[in-house]
Design a protein that fits this description.
Elements lengths: L15 H7 L2 H28 L2 H20 L8 E4 L19 E4 L7 E5 L4 E4 L5 H8 L4 E3 L10 H6 L7 H4 L6 E7 L5 E4 L6 H6 L9 E11 L3 E10 L2 H10 L17 E6 L4 E10 L1 H4 L17 H6 L1 H4 L2 E6 H5 L10 H4 L6 H7 L7 H6 L3 H10 L1 E8 L3 H11 L5 E9 L13 H4 L8 E11 L2 H4 L6 H14 L14 H7 L3 H9 L9 H5 L6 H20 L4
Parallel strand pairs: 1-2
Antiparallel strand pairs: 3-4, 4-8, 5-8, 6-7, 6-8, 9-11, 9-12, 10-11, 10-14, 13-15, 14-15
């Protein structure tokens, strides 16, 4: 068997859950889609109502809501109440990770009112927003002004708070870094009810650097100031097909945006947007985009493709046509390009509704898409949820750019999931070591894509049913994820914690650096008030006893360090 050949697996006997999943589309069409559409419409009306309010009114409401949060926190009795959690229901989260920590006794703080764009400052090029503002809402407000967040995550429902406390990326991240790298300031309510504004150069700079990836375990985020950039009306997108082995595809992907001469910061050589899709072990399409004016897009001979219309082919399938017709260029309205994967949830929509990509469905019912991920989660019990954990993969592997080929080969060998999404991002060398960080000494190697200030990484997005599952063979999803996590640790990679994780606490802190995070948790009183990031990310149910014992261990360690004699 060659290195790339997948192992032979025996056939798996079907159980009742298989049939329920196979016909789940009935529930989705008649229940989930209509309710989703209604929620989307009502949310849109709420957003419009918010936009009609003056800046002063929105700020006044924000200040009042912050006072309510502070008051609520101060009502907590640490000796009687559980650890602090938001009041958001577990199934509302977009991520696939089970929010099982809320099954233990906890003290709820309601943040549901924090969903307004507070101010668009054109002079400072800053958007000040509340944490529940989502990507669809912010792009709808900024793009007509020819402005945009530097990094706009593709799915409409992704919120600012989730992208900051967790993980966020987009095709512009090879220029600007991850979503959290574009945040200028965080407004956070600490465990004792103190409201602070953290920036990279004020007295709370340690908190500023510790918040990304902390999963909301350091304080309650109530607002953020995020960098804006000027944009144009269209995205000029070039689709380039690539054929070869996985290493060839990886190299073509690198070459699409990373000059081999190392001139990575040259605007003339580096596109505004980059995205790669690997459709099979031998075929892929690499896409590069540059902002273009309305005048350029409408010149004679140029093709404009409004991919946002409900009846249009799903974007990943449209891109795949380059494999047959060769390289081509088209112009896509900027906001429609940003949210190109929303309608089909990348390619997960094909699993949820197997016929939803067909012409008749798109024309008749495409306007109902997509189903809300939160409703999909709400309509599945533990048996269905566990089935998806075992028979389905939704994982992102953040790996150094020069190891993308190895990552693709690993995924093919162990999971056989296609398509695979490729999206590059800068991993900045910061003045302080955070939970994720570039390889030590990367700047000395001068590898393709790297600069003196940042190492180029790539998100290898693995979302779909593995090949063995589609063939009816035995597949151990939990074991595959454990192997993936081990591979990432060995290759200085990282796993975003929105996904299902099998990491033990020891392995978790081998993947991530605990130094700054634990220091900030103790300094700002988060220990004993908020759950630790590992325990919040841990797979499985959390009983009240487990939660208390875990936090007590953190408290005892903190006290032990404080009590140590100084030499």
């Amino acid at each position: 068997m060659s290195d790339l050949e997948a192992p032979l697996r025996p056939k798996r006997k079907k159980i009742w859950v298989d049939y329920f999943v196979q016909f789940r589309w009935i529930l989705v069409i008649f229940v989930v889609l209509p309710i989703s559409f209604t929620i989307y419409f009502l949310t849109y009306l709420g957003d419009v109502r918010s936009e009609w309010k003056s800046y002063k009114t929105r700020q006044k409401e924000h200040d009042e809501n912050v006072r309510k949060v502070i008051k609520r926190l101060k009502q907590r009795d640490p000796s009687k109440d559980g650890l602090v959690c938001t009041a958001r229901k577990p199934w509302i989260a977009v991520g696939m990770r089970n929010v099982d920590y809320k099954r233990a006794r906890h003290f709820e703080v309601d943040l549901s009112a924090f969903r307004n764009i507070l101010h668009i400052d054109r002079e400072r090029m800053i958007a000040r927003v509340e944490p529940l503002v989502n990507m669809g809402q912010i792009s709808r407000a900024t793009v007509p002004m020819n402005l945009s967040l530097a990094v706009v995550a593709e799915l409409d429902d992704l919120t600012v708070g989730g992208l900051i406390n967790g993980y966020g990326i987009e095709g512009s991240s090879h220029k600007y870094g991850l979503f959290s790298d574009t945040v200028v300031a965080y407004e956070v309510v600490l465990a004792d009810g103190t409201l602070v504004r953290a920036t990279k150069d004020n007295e709370f700079s340690d908190l500023y650097y510790a918040i990304p990836w902390s999963q909301g375990t350091l304080g309650l985020l109530v607002a953020a100031e995020i960098r804006l950039i000027p944009v144009k009306e269209y995205m000029k997108l070039t689709y380039k097909p690539v054929v070869g082995n996985l290493q060839d595809l990886a190299q073509a992907y690198c070459d699409s945006f990373a000059p081999r001469d190392g001139d990575q910061d040259n605007e003339e050589k580096v596109p505004d947007f980059v995205e790669g899709m690997v459709y099979t072990a031998t075929e892929g399409v690499m896409m590069t985009g540059r902002y273009a004016s309305k005048e350029e897009a409408k010149k004679k001979g140029n093709k404009i493709n409004s991919v946002g219309w409900w009846f249009k082919p799903w974007f990943y399938q449209h891109a795949q046509t380059a494999l047959k017709k060769g390289e081509f260029v088209e112009y896509i309205p900027t906001r429609e390009y940003y949210h190109r994967h929303t309608r089909c949830l990348y390619w997960e929509g094909k699993l949820i509704l197997p016929f939803a990509d067909q012409c008749w469905f798109r024309f008749l019912f495409g306007w109902l898409m997509p189903p809300k991920v939160s409703l999909l989660k709400a309509t599945q019990g533990d048996a269905i949820r566990n089935y998806y954990h075992e028979m389905h993969v939704i994982q992102d592997m953040l790996v150094p750019l020069y190891k993308v080929g190895d990552a693709l080969e690993w995924v093919h060998r162990e999971m056989e999931v296609y398509p695979i999404w490729l999206c590059p991002h800068k991993m900045f060398k910061l003045p302080i070591k955070t939970m994720i960080y570039p390889e030590p000494g990367f700047e000395l190697h001068r590898r393709q894509g790297d600069t003196q200030t940042a190492q180029m990484y790539t998100d290898v997005g693995v979302y779909y049913a593995p090949g063995p599952v589609l063939r009816g063979e035995v597949f151990d999803g939990a074991e595959a994820v454990r192997k993936m996590e081990s591979w990432l640790i060995e290759n200085h990679g990282f796993q975003p914690q929105y996904a299902v994780s099998e990491l033990s606490e020891k392995s978790f802190w081998r993947m991530f650096d605990a130094g700054l995070y634990e220091s900030v948790r103790r300094k700002y009183g988060a220990v004993g008030t908020f759950m630790s990031v590992y325990y919040k990310s841990k797979k499985g149910r959390k009983t009240e006893k487990e939660v208390q014992e875990a936090e007590q261990a953190h408290l005892e360690n903190a006290y032990a360090e404080v009590d140590q004699p100084v030499d």
